Amino acid sequence: MNVRMQHSMAAVLERQRAAFLTDGPPDATMRRNRIDRLLALVLDNADDFVDAMAADFGTRPRVGSLFTEIMGMISVIEHTRSHVGQWMQPSRLMRPARAFGLRAGVEPSPLGVVGIIGPWNFPLNLVVLPASAAFAAGNRVMVKMSEVTARTAELMQTLSTAYFSPEELAVVTGDAHVAADFAALPFDHLFFTGSPSVGTLVQRAAATNLVPVTLELGGKNPVVVGPGAEVARAAARIAQGRMINGGQVCVCPDYVFVPVDKTDEFVRLLRENLARMFPSIAASADYCSSVNEANFDRVVGLIEDARDKGARVDSVVPPGEILPDRSTRKIAPTILQDVDHSMRIASEETFGPVLTIEPYERLSDVVDYINSRPAPLVAYWFGPDDADFRSFVRHTRSGGVARNDFAAQMIPSAAPFGGVGRSGMGAYHGKAGFDTFSHHRTVVGSDLPFTITGRAAPPFTRSMRVTTALALRMARRRTHRRLRRLRNR
């Protein structure tokens, strides 16, 4: 990256921070206005964005882009917009004490300037949603678009100037070097969506300036077909979930646990569903390509590595077609069995149209396996809401849990979305997004005729010593009384 670009980004950041400090926290009307302009930017230019994303991917279904990129964000943004005024209100503490002259509250205040680094798999949705939350919280926003989807990035940068001043929203494009320098800027908060490996670099860069970071990462999402599941329904919905965006989704099912006595039936039904979904792939406008050659080669390499090391590989290739095909970057839906830990796909996030099948006899073994690996972004369960499911939820760790449908944990607009451990830190969507980009500042004022905290300053009187000793003795007795009560249960 050239020095001019680096200085340019720093200058934009300083302009935004100066405007933020000069104008002060925006009122609810301005926050809603910025959210509306952001939504208008997307909706007014939806066709152009869909065309740009199709060009970036090679083949990306138009309806799929409209549904996942654009329609999928509207309900969350509308929910945020409608609650801005409510979320801005300070909360009161110690209400009875107000009558005596002690007033305490917590006021949400904007952080200042928020940096957002977007991914390539949903290059529009996953920058607009965090930006809307940052606007709701009263911040200015700088966005670094993914260089992998360069046409979408350029379009976003060009269009943004028609809807926003650069002091409100600035869109940055450029390669990985630009992204690295962007991550190193002294933002008031940095939001990143992408892989754990890159997330590590982002957090390391932000740490230099002690910038708080929200990381929305990925991982290998497990699916459990429970003992009471309807196998046919599970197979159909898992097939659909895996193939959205060509499998290039951070919440895609990755590997599936199936009861031993139902594994053959499940694999047969899974294969039938995939074949029915895609009677043609090579020339199909509905079959999403790998975004670039690097990802195409990586996914093909995972499959071949598994094959070479003894896995059973079943590629669901339509009759008369030869896949994978480098010219279209299309890989057929692939089912893997007999996968072991020596294979790369056992530990690497797939991010392609591949499912691994794992037979199981005891649910406790499934839980132990999942818990021995990094916590996933989402854990899936197919089956009734019974004791087995509740035990699974209680004894596993994941960013979210979805039962009987793909990404069901994202359906409620008010629900927080985020990972845990290696799948991420922090959350957004709904009030969680507002809170992520806010500082909750405690404000306390006293009109009491005496000091409360000043009693901790010397000189200490005899009555102070007696009172402190008595309070300590009472607290000790109260604590041990609770401990005895628990032991005697």
Automatic annotation (TrEMBL):
PROSITE patterns named in the record: ALDEHYDE_DEHYDR_GLU
Record flagged with keyword Signal: no
Gene Ontology cellular-component terms listed: cytoplasm
Location of the active site: E216, C250
GO biological process, one term: aldehyde metabolic process
InterPro entries: Ald_DH/histidinol_DH, Ald_DH_C, Ald_DH_CS_GLU, Ald_DH_N, Aldehyde_DH_dom, Aldehyde_DH_NAD(P)
Keyword hit for Oxidoreductase: yes
A GO molecular function held by the record: aldehyde dehydrogenase (NAD+) activity
Residue ranges annotated for the Aldehyde dehydrogenase domain, each copy included: 27-443
Swiss-Prot/TrEMBL keywords: Oxidoreductase
Highest taxon, organism lineage: Bacteria
Annotated Gene3D superfamilies: Aldehyde Dehydrogenase, Chain A, domain 1, Aldehyde Dehydrogenase, Chain A, domain 2
Protein family (similarity comment): Belongs to the aldehyde dehydrogenase family.
PANTHER family: ALDEHYDE DEHYDROGENASE, ALDEHYDE DEHYDROGENASE TYPE III, ISOFORM Q
Protein name: Aldehyde dehydrogenase
Organism annotation: Mycolicibacterium iranicum
